[in-house]
Amino acid sequence: MALLGHSLGAYISTLDKEKLRKLTTRILSDTTLWLRRIFRYENGCAYFHEEEREGLAKICRLAIHSRYEDFVVDGFDVLYNKKPVIYLSAAARPGLGQYLCNQLGLPVSCLCRVPCNTMFGSQHQMDIAFLEKLIKDDIEKGRLPLLLVASAGTAAVGHTDKIGRLKELCEQYGIWLHVEGVNLATLALGYVSSSVLAATKCDSMTLTPGPWLGLPAIPAVTLYKHDDPALTLVAGLTSNKPADKLRALPLWLSLQYLGLDGIVERIKHACQLSQRLQESLKKVDHIKILVEDELSSPVVVFRFFQELPGSDPAFKAVPVSNVAPAAIGRERDPCDALNRWLGEQLKQLVPMCGLTVMDLEVDGTCVRFSPLMTAAGLGTRGEDVDQLITCIQSKLPVLTCTLQLREEFRQEVEGTASLLYVDDPTWPGIGVVRYEHANDDNSSLKSDPEGEKIHTGLLKKLNELESDLIFKMGPEYKSMKSCIYIGMASDDVDVSELVETIAVTAREIEENSRLLENMTEVVRKGIQEAQVQLQKANEERLLEEGVLRQIPVVGSVLNWFSPVQASQKGRSFNLTAGSLESTEYTYVHKVQGTGVTPPPTPSGTRSKQRLPGQKPFKRSLRGSDAVSETSSVSHIEDLEKVEQLSSGLEHSNLEAHCPEQAPRASAPTATQTEALQNKAQHPEDDHPQVEGLERLR
Length: 697
Prior knowledge:
Residues 591-697 are annotated as: Disordered. Keywords: Decarboxylase, Lyase, Pyridoxal phosphate. The protein is of the alpha+beta class. The chain has 24 helices and 17 strands. The strands form 4 sheets. Strands 1-7-6-5-4-2-3 form a 7-stranded mixed sheet, sandwiched between helices. A 4-stranded antiparallel sheet has the order 8-9-11-10. A 4-stranded antiparallel sheet has the order 12-13-15-14, covered by helices on one side. The protein starts with a helix and ends with a helix.
């Protein structure tokens, strides 16, 4: 019906002018009357507009014409002599003040931003005492307090200003009061909170029924109270053009299709969804709700929060917003990154809830659920809210485990040579680490090809371990230095093993790279030396054979009569010894000479006993009584020794007690016979082995 309204509007505009005037007037008056009754706004007019902020701009223009009688004649000169002031809350929508100045042609100095409460009350509500002080200061400076924009549900967290007290203040100083916000939708319900109900007494309010009812292409509505039709016409709030009046046609059709019961049911369903989520979140640990005092607000804002370690219970009970920034500055950054990760995960897992991630100045990164703006369009149901709670509970162990391991990881990295801990509060993982190679210049911000090569190889090796951790290379826009970013930890991780593996693997990659470079240099020098030696050998051969043998014809005849027995001389390069060797041995014995056997390369990786199926970096049976510090790996090694010793004794006893099998076997040597005789003469030598076996058992 909403989309059909636009087509009907285009068709109706072709009617006869008189019929068109009567029809558009009827549509406009009916829609205005319905909206006034639904949202409890008595004796008001309506202005329908596409841009949501356009209605407020028209109201400001109406307030200027009402307070400056000579504005139509003198224009800006009147404003220059007595500058108007528009008061906006610090929690207002971003860019609203700049938009008003651009539309009205006013300088930015005409805006006055009123701070929110800092000591008492909600930190997202306007500070009324400070507002009154600002108004008095402006009057003393010769300015004119013109208009105040209050919020019935702030754009961020849905808090409602104390509109009743603000209305009294505006009446005292002759200021126009305009209210906007998502909580105005609750005026259609049977029960409305007193703070929102006070908005019905304001001078104007802006409604957005399109998102509330889930209807596309529905215009916003600004309801206002004014008795002078000439001023409303000059301000642009009324128009004689039928096309402007036809803006209300899509909303007129939609309201008739839904009816009062349908409108109330959609708004009520959205409020029930928010209450359902809020009640469920109160039972979840490590989740902080930021709008607990606003029981009537259809907006739920929450965030993951971990108590500060080492603090007393009284301090832990204090909300995040009431803790001093210095006390939580270090803890808040990782929580912000984790909350952003949580919000993105929930948006993917439960898209029907229409969640948004936002950054608040005081509370940090939070997740917002505003069903009034999304539920009707997405079709959000109560089952979706239950699924959202289940997803939050499933992600909490990952968040708590990761946050607990961050400090341990930082200490391990700082205590490990050649590793540098990189503090990146925007990364939602265990941490960020960088390997400092021998030629690394920390003071320089230039790109490091050698370090990038080492970190690329290190990332490949870590991903080949098939652990539950996720390893990534650092974002290029963060820094030109390469880093290894370690992701979230879903289980208990052995941080010491993780850090040691990173350090040892990076060191091996660096050593292998240096070995290859050194070998390349040695081979190059060996080739040059071989060329010099072969050139000398060729000169010596010329001296031995003589000059006559070098002449083409004479040399051939001389070689036929007196052949020269010359041995083939060459050079081979021994990679192990790094030296040149003659090939004379190879040509004489027809066998290539064997060089020195290189020593085995020591492995720097710590070999750790793991249980079957245990993945890398996992602490085995942590907190279990079955394995302790004195009976874990050493106990397993003792059992292996007992099995080897017992199998060896059984094999010896089998040979000693089965002499009849000797004729079938090969004849023993003299040494074996002598050993058997000594063993038969001294049987007591076996007792220490048996006693050792029993002791180990």
